[in-house]
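Quick one: sequence plus pyridoxal-5'-phosphate SMILES, need structure tokens.
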Amino acid sequence: MKNKKFETQAIRAQLARTEYNEHSTPLFLTSSFVFDSAEEMRAAFNDESDDFIYSRYSNPTVAEFVNKVCLMEGAEAGVSMATGMAAIYTSFMALLKSGDHVVSCSSVFGATHAIFTKYFPKLNISHSYFNTNKENEIEKLIKPETRFIYLETPTNPAIELIDLEVVAAVAKKHNILLIVDNCFATPYLQQPIKHGADLVIHSATKYMDGQGRVLGGVVVGKKELIHEIYLYGRLTGPSLSPFNAWVLTKSLETLALRMDRHCENALYVAEKLEGNAALENVSYPFLKSHPHHLIAKKQMKAGGGIITVTVKGGYEGAKTFLDKLQMIKISPNLGDSRSIATHPASSTHCKLSEEDRLAVGITPGLVRISIGLEHKDDILNDILNALK
Ligand SMILES: *Cc1c(COP(=O)(O)O)cnc(C)c1O
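Reply:
Sure thing.
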């Protein structure tokens, strides 16, 4: 499958087939596996064979999902977890030790920020944040004990971009790792390993499932790093359920198709909303007016499915707009076939101080809209009616 195109791999890559010769991906709901002999079991436990042992370690359906993500990201190896946060936390715990330091972009997912600020200090792990527009300031933050640079691009929720090649060059120069949370872009739009990342993490809950059904997480990249993460996960138990892995594997078959439509709808809605009298600003990476438009063009195939609008009148304006939406629902999720609106300042990012929020572009009037797969005119009209 290695020489086939993205869309073909997404559908045709398959590791396991049972004696029934089923055409679609089989689901192996089993907690453990049996061995033909005591010797085979001994070999499996001593890493002398690849036999499946126990589904906390690995499972054929889970392996299907991981294999597909590796092909999509161009990664050597991968390991999956129950959620995106489990993938992030397990990777951190496997790679860091007391005394280490990490450099991260300041606009990280809220729960990731909480790990840095609330739990890292307990473990004597420190962090420094860099601002999205200031890749050139990263170098000053690096210390002898810095283990990796961590970032998201596009960022959540402000939809800013970070130049992957620039950051990868800094990481390489200082011999530290670059870890990218690629959740917003998906491997269809952006493959950070090609730009120099060592590890790529996903919340599979978002576009990989794409239909708001299951939670999942995955991390792919360099084999020796993945092995460390796998060993930590296999002991501590944040394993992905085989059922969820099966749902996700089937979902990946349509990732390219869905992302094309998410991007088409998002660009259409963003273009139509630009200049609307009720809005201060519309942000979308593939709008020419986006401050990081050139970075977007360089590292992304299209702009993704998320737009932000800044409603005039601050929090009151945003609240009125959200309450007037009819079809689009208010929810924290994103990357769903159904369009979703979120007010970050009062919900996902309410724990940050006003100052910290403003530093990462979260103004009181900012609304994040995950543009779904409904007809683009129905999405646009719902937004336009609410803005009236
Ligand atoms: C949702 C999300 C996560 C966390 O994923 P879960 O599956 O909810 O644990 C991490 N990073 C980003 C960018 C996300 O959007």
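The pocket of pyridoxal-5'-phosphate is lined by residues 83-85, 109, 152, 156, 181, 183-184, 203, 205-206, 215, 217 (CB under 6 Å). The domain at 255-387 is CATH 3.90.1150.10 (Aspartate Aminotransferase, domain 1).
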